[in-house]
Design brief:
three-stranded antiparallel beta sheet
Amino acid sequence: MTVAAPVIRKTQGESTKIKLSEQDFQFVWRKFLQGPLEEPKTVVAQPEAPPAVKESTPAIELDVKLIGTLVDGQDSRAWLEVRGKQQVLSIGEQVEGHNGSPVLKNVSHQRAVFQIGETMHEVRIATMIPAAGAIDD
């Protein structure tokens, strides 16, 4: 069945009004505006490939005792003790006699940051200041 849509003609300066009825829209109303309901498709998630296993090196613990710091921009220094020997390092220098070759990266008040591989380690000065009145003369 073919239904022709009404034609609106425009004449010089005048428009012709056409009165529409329900019959003019019967062809639209008979159409399904929504398709039949369907069950959603089951999607099975594909397992992700396991992450590439890097051969991990054993974690190296930083065995350094920070004794003092001198903070002066890029000329900052860290005074530390490594295996009973004292060292003074500038930023960018390696700790001698330590596994993993830790590099001094940053020095601030009572704190130094070292890098071993891709891991950063922070060391703080262990202060032992007695409480007021705790020292007997």
